[in-house]
């Protein structure tokens, strides 16, 4: 189905505004999401299926994609894989399912966040702002962090384990950075949501899923984590092996 690109209302020039590609086959959802993003100052395009989304993304690389999981033909997971195969474009996945397996699948293929339908359009806009803010190069580069064979460069947004680069999403990178900066301290999921995500509200299972995914990339044995430990009744604590985390 051919669909014309969404044209933002108003006379403000959008040439330099962040470009958001909204991919959803439900015209009502797509229109509401696009409208809220437009009013927030973004340049918005819409696609109602996977092939159209890939064509639009290839023609004009978006700064972020809001992507429905359940699309006709090519589902959102495959669209995300293909988009991320051409470069690190931030992706926020929309899903009507509450099952955690779907959330994990979205994170596995490179989604940086997910929102479960029904959702608040205002909350989605805040999440878009948060993901975009973290995807920009930091003006304050800070110190490189090292611990337990891990090395993290905040300026380059690059992390390695024993010299091998880790394929981290934006959220995973920020979470690892936070843990490295606060070794030995226990943080609740609410604390991590606020300090890492910058949110005072939201689904706390987001933190659980991101911790699980991060463990899968930094732990020698994710089933028996030694670095990111669970503190029962509290949350999580980063325990670098062989001493305290150091700054380089």
From TrEMBL:
Record's keyword terms, sorted: DNA-binding, Phosphoprotein, Transcription, Transcription regulation, Two-component regulatory system
PANTHER family (UniProt xref): DNA-BINDING DUAL TRANSCRIPTIONAL REGULATOR OMPR (PTHR48111:SF4), REGULATOR OF RPOS (PTHR48111)
Positions of the OmpR/PhoB-type domain: 142-240
GO molecular function term, any single one: phosphorelay response regulator activity
Entry-linked Pfam families: Response_reg (PF00072), Trans_reg_C (PF00486)
CDD domains: REC_OmpR, trans_reg_C
One GO term describing the cellular component: cytosol
Modified positions (4-aspartylphosphate) in chain numbering: 68
Residue ranges of DNA binding: 142-240
Domain Response regulatory: start-end pairs: 19-132
Descriptive protein name: Two-component system response regulator
InterPro entries: CheY-like_superfamily, OmpR/PhoB-type_DNA-bd, Sig_transdc_resp-reg_receiver, WalR-like, WH-like_DNA-bd_sf
Database matches in SMART domains: REC, Trans_reg_C
GO biological process: regulation of DNA-templated transcription
Gene3D superfamilies in the record: 3.40.50.2300, 6.10.250.690, Winged helix-like DNA-binding domain superfamily/Winged helix DNA-binding domain
């Amino acid at each position: 189905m051919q669909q014309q690109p969404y044209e933002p209302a108003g006379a403000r020039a959008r040439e330099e505004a962040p470009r958001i590609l909204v991919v959803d086959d439900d015209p009502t959802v797509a229109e509401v999401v696009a409208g809220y993003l437009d009013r927030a100052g973004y340049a918005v395009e819409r696609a109602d299926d996977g092939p159209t989304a890939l064509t639009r993304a290839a023609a004009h690389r978006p700064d972020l994609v809001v992507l429905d999981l359940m699309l006709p033909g090519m589902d959102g997971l495959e669209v995300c894989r293909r988009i991320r195969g051409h470069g690190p474009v931030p992706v926020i996945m929309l899903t009507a399912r509450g099952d955690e397996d779907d959330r994990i699948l979205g994170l596995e293929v490179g989604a940086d966040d997910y929102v479960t339908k029904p959702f608040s359009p205002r909350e989605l806009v805040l999440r878009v702002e948060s993901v975009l803010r973290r995807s920009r190069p930091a003006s304050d580069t800070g110190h490189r962090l090292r611990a337990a064979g891990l090395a993290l460069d905040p300026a380059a947004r690059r992390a390695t384990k024993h010299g091998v680069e880790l394929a981290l999403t934006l959220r995973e990178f920020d979470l690892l950075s936070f843990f490295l900066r606060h070794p030995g301290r226990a943080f609740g999921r609410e604390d991590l949501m606020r300090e890492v995500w910058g949110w005072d509200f939201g689904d706390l299972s987001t933190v659980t899923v991101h911790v699980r995914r991060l463990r899968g990339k930094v732990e020698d044995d994710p089933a028996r984590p030694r670095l990111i430990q669970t503190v029962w009744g509290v949350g999580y604590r980063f325990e670098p092996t062989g001493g305290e985390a150091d700054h380089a």
